[in-house]
Amino acid sequence: MKLSKNNIFLIIGYILILVVIGYNSPKEINWTPTYSMEHTVPYGCKVLYNQLGDILGADIEKSKNELYNLEELDGKSNLIYITTSFAPDDNDIDRLMYEVRNGATVFLATEVIGQKLQDSLHMNTGFTNDYFGIPGVDSSQYFAARYIGSNKTYKIKHPGSMPYITPDSVALQDTSLEYTPLCTAMSDRTIMASIKIGEGKFIVQSFPRTFTNYNMLKKPNDEFVAGALSFLPVQHTIWDEYYKPLRNEKADTPLRYILSAPALKWAYYVSIAFLLLYIIFSSKRMQRIIPTMQPPVNQSLEFTRTVGSLYFNSTSDHRDIAMKKMVYFLERIRLHYNMATPYNDDEFQEKLAAKSGVAIEVIADIFAQYNFINKSISSNENQLQELTKAIENFYLIANISYK
């Protein structure tokens, strides 16, 4: 297809607008916590995952399966869960507790823990604004954390209230549970603790943002992360990618993927705008006017009236017209009621009255007028009108169209 100059200029203008928008549009930072090893956003975990093998000195396996469908672990494995909220169902919790009792170590970094798992671990979670402030640092942006027995303080970025963990009354009274605080913040509130169960243990940390790209790239926060993970034994480690906050919100259609990327989204909107402009202006110039087509008019009734008027005016034979009206009347009776139509038959009139529901007097009047006109040598207009009224009265009572 040969392009006109206007279309070429339109395409060039479209490309220039895309380039200008893409060059000048601000690059928004996505602060959504994803905790995924595939994401490079501030609150993704790609940096940690890439260094995890060196930190732990063990092989790392990625899992996208729920706990219930996890392969048998034989007890000697680490399970790492970093997410906003961790509330698996009963079957998953039973599987997790089974693996821990048989020697597995679970590292769980999350702000919210399901109630059943809290009861199983004999612990509670909460939130506070009572920050352990750092001099010269805005307390609404950071909190100070330190390992128990250490004098070094780490500055961790946070967006608001700080989650913490506490043992419940059972854990405080039963020393066999071995509930051990590992790290504190905010006026000595515990943000990391070890809970021994059977042959294995849980290491629970209440601030998962510690392990994200943003804090990993801030010195010396990488030391804090390495210190937290050092409580894991050196053994096969499984990194979870199933219990993530945005697991059900991934782009699963081409359009959703386009709208998720700012550059593609702007290109999509500009393309639609130019397409609409092209349709509006080009269609006005190229479309041919379609004439209005009137539907055919049914003129059969007008034709019949015209022929009737012509016949009547040309002959003025009222008797002949009355005879023809009677023939037409009897033909309608024959077709409508499927019965023979003799002219003078009392039995026929009685049958017609029974079938049509019209009084015998009305039917007899029609035939009486017809007989009178038929025996006359000529007929006048009044006699023709009376016969016509009698026939139309029959049609009306019998509910038969007479046109």
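the 2nd protein, sequnce then structure:
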Amino acid sequence: MGTPAFAVPSLSEILAAGQDVVRVYTQPPRRSGRGKTLTKSPVHQFAEIMGLPVETPQSFRKPHVIDALDALNADVACVVAYGQILPKRALAAPRFGCLNLHGSKLPRWRGAAPVQRAIMAGDTQTAAQIMQMEPGLDSGPILLSEIIPILNEDTAANLSERMSRIGAALWPRTLAALERGVLIASAQTGKPTYAAKIDKAEARLNWCKPAKQLEQQIRGLSPFPGAWCMLPGHKGKERIKIHLAKVERGEGSPGTTLDDQLLIATRDKSLRLLRIQPAGKSTMDVKNYLRGRPVDAGIRLT
């Protein structure tokens, strides 16, 4: 059970290990792109290439959907970013229940956006963990875990990509241990924190915050939804997304450019913008942007 590209390596590893995948569950096709074309999920597309039967129920709350899952007589369900809440009856349908790959060091960052929240909070490490699912939100016992350092340059995109590969490699080991009856579950310990879904309102940069906090916000929200601000110009204010920046020395009124290369003052230090995305355009290096749209010192970003 999975939907985005993050889940594809897991399905690939499970197949490569020789497991018999009797059914793939994924979210229904959605309209996407400028043409609003009906598009199958990455997991759906990969499953079809591999010749696997696919189900795309709108909701697992429907009794007939759970009946169909029950009828598969599956040993276990492997869940990776599926995008639906599984009710108690669905969790109990496979012989050994449902196992979930989660992208954090539980119980820290239970919930929808663990990768983004970890970067935004300045965490130095996270984890890929397979846990036994239960009705509570990411509260089940841990079966297998791999610690992942968070690098200074990590964005949500590249940390997720690395985590998807590391997490995928846990599945063959988990399923082999399950077959041998030697899989050991360990209860989560410590105080839980929750990774709420990213609200678009969080994406606007407040230059009155410390530079490091803003730099983490930028990396945690890259590429989506993208941290942003308004840049004044001769044609009015322009909205720009910022995908990469670095902390530098320099003081001034928060939000003010300190040179003509987009060094921005914050509450304590300053932030050098490195990669930005003007509205309606692709991401580009700041140097390329400034060739066509110079920005002088003393301009105030909001």
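The domain at 5-195 is CATH 3.40.50.170 (Rossmann fold). The two ends are 42 Å apart (CA to CA).
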